[in-house]
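Standup notes, structure subgroup. Blocker cleared on the zinc ion input:
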Amino acid sequence: MFDSHLHLRDPRIIPYHARFVKEAIDLGVTGCIDCAVRPEDWNAEVRCALNVTTAFGLHPWCVATACPDWADFLECALRADPGALVGEIGLDGIRKTFDGGAAQREALQIQLALAVRLGRPVILHGARAWGALLHALEPWADKLPAILLHGVSFSPDLLRHPVLSRSNVWFSVGGALLSPAAQTLPRLAAAIPLDRLLVETDSPDMLPIGGEPLVLGQYRALLNSPANLPLILRALARIRDIPFAELADLTAANAHALLATRG
Ligand SMILES: [Zn+2]
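Run returned:
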């Protein structure tokens, strides 16, 4: 099993990496993509028993507080790790900003240009801003090695968008699938092409309904962990009518296909 999106450098779990991943490893999770989303995290070293691929990027939520020279710092981090992806970057429609999202849009353009220049795949956040994100992506889509949309939640009709019908675009489904209120996401999860379907926990956030909370220090009953990946996979397996083990292998193979696009 491969968790295509989590945050190992989240300050809440840094002292507890071994515990954070232990149960997941026991359950058969073997690899993950760790997104380092703010300049303070781009130097931090991660020691973890999972097979970790790192992504460096300025998350839209971190744009307002980033140091002025963050773009130079980001380029240094990416050049120092030739296997690293660019992410998590994107546009966000959940938290309102004072500038109507102008700074986020500028940061996204800077990072897409950097990803193209360095030949790196990108991992994108587009929560409640998917249309604007796809519009911003249009000029870059055919220059990027690969695009991973994380935590997807949009109308299945959007899959016909010219950017999303490309073969170098992958879609990662997370724990929101388990919410009883989720209506659009199950339909989207049923419609994503099988060879471009990935799964993620987005831990330590996004604890799914029915998921096992990880109790770490003061963060009792709050944290998600990659050990909840099988729960998400089981829900997805029911929707796709595919045996769990087969879907686990398929989504892991898809993740490796995405990573193979790195130059
Ligand atoms: Zn995330």
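Discussed briefly. Residues 102-118 form the longest helix (17 residues).
Next: hand off to the docking folks.
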